[in-house]
Structures are given as C-alpha cells and as structure tokens.
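Design job #97: recover the sequence.
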C-alpha cells in the first residue's frame, strides 16, 4: 500500500474551544488518535482495515468477491460518516474533516491464492494469516522497546467464503436504505489458537461478527481478547463458535436457549 502521512493532530485532537466542548471527543477524532502512534513494526502506518482471505473460487466467485469487497467498503465508509450534521445547541457548525480523514485511511489487503485457500477451513486460514503476519510484522524500531504495539490489523482478519460473501451481498448497496442491521455477519479469524482445554479439539479462535454494528468499531476499540472470544455475544451450540452479532437481547435469548438445552 502507499505510505500515508501522519495524522494531522489539529484534526484528531483539537483544543477545546470552550468549557464543555464535545468536538475533541467525537468518535471520529478518537479513532484518528488511535491511528496516530507508529512504532515502526509494520508498513501499514496511519491506516485501518483488515486483511481479507478469499476461500471461495467456484463459478461466478470472481465477480461475487469483488462486489463483496466493494460492499464492505460502503459500510466501512458509513461507519466513518455516522456523525452526520445536525443541530447541536451551542456547539457551532459541524466539522466533517475528521470523518473525511478517517475514511481516507481505510485500507483492506486482499489475499487470493486458489491453490492454498480454495475451500480452506478456518484453521487453515488462520495458519495463512500467521504466515502473513510473519512477513509483515517485525520488531519495533521507534520507542523504548522492541515489542510491537497492539494493532488490530495483526489481531483479526476476514475470511470470505461463500457464506460470508452471501451475507455481505445481502446488505443494500445504499447504506442509507432500511435494513435489519443485526443479521449480516462475516467470519473473523483471530491470531490465537485454541488449546485442547479450550474446546473444539484445539483449532483456531474465530468469530461471526456483525458487519454494521461490530466489525468496524472492533478494529478501533478491541475488547480484551479473552472477554471477546469467550464472553461477548453467545456461543453457537453446534460448533462452539462465538457469535458477535445481533442485539444484546438476542444474545440473552440464545444463551438461555443454550442453557435450557443443556439441562
């Protein structure tokens, strides 16, 4: 990817104009501040987005994959633009610059390798993700230590199999169109491997993550991995995978149903 310039701190962290000014704490500015540090441990400085591993290579999949990538970008942009202009008493005119700046730094890297990834399992994609991290992550060269700082690009990746692609393409092309926002999810592969004690006979930790509500905030505000992988959302009874989609009320219903089935 092309090297991006450092984040303009005048946009990311402006000085409050008056007591109680909410402008410096808008979510778009907080997200930009999250992108500000760079320790020299990778070549994706000042950007955000996921690495996308394509595993569907059947007839028509080239077009479907390309459309899915485009549709993801539409909803990533929606995430950056959610702070729409509206009347805010005493807060002055709405400043769109942080939203535009955040969107300009979106970048997803696509990995397409039919020989290696066609119909790959989640664990296989995790292994390829590990190898990708090994090629793109290095010791820190800026700061006091050599351990790289946490960066979501190296914690989570997207797996676009047929199911994920179908879910993405079910979302309207127009992000402003009415949609039941909780139901569309995509597979997210993590950089962690389950131990035998953690169930599912080892294998890769992965999640089903809601595209509209959770996928983009997760990049900027990652929860404690243990909490997110084991406690957020609900565990699918059939495969033990954590579902981070739907509303909290949906989670409660699924958890209670799972408990009832176990008794």
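Job complete. Output follows.
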């Amino acid at each position: 990817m092309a090297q991006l310039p450092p984040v303009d701190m005048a946009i990311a962290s402006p000085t409050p104009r008056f007591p109680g000014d909410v402008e410096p704490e808008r979510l778009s500015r907080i997200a930009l501040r999250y992108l500000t540090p760079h320790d020299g441990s990778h070549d994706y400085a000042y950007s955000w987005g996921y690495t996308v591993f394509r595993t569907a290579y059947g007839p028509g999949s080239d077009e479907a994959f390309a459309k899915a990538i485009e549709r993801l970008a539409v909803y990533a942009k929606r995430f950056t633009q959610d702070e729409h202009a509206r009347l805010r008493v005493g807060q002055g005119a709405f400043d769109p610059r942080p939203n535009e700046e955040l969107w300009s730094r979106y970048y997803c890297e696509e990995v397409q390798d039919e020989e290696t990834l066609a119909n790959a399992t989640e664990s296989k994609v995790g292994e390829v993700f590990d190898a990708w991290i090994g090629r793109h992550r290095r010791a820190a060269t800026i700061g006091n230590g050599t351990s790289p700082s946490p960066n979501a690009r190296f914690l989570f990746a997207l797996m676009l199999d047929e199911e994920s692609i179908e879910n993405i393409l079910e979302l309207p092309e127009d992000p402003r169109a009415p949609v039941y926002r909780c139901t569309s999810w995509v597979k997210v592969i993590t950089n962690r491997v389950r131990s035998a004690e953690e169930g599912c006979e080892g294998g890769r930790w992965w999640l089903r993550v809601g595209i509209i509500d959770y996928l983009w905030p997760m990049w900027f505000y990652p929860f404690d991995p243990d909490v997110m992988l084991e406690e957020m959302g609900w565990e699918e009874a059939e495969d033990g995978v954590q579902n981070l989609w739907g509303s909290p009320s949906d989670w409660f219903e699924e958890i209670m149903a799972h408990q009832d089935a176990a008794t």
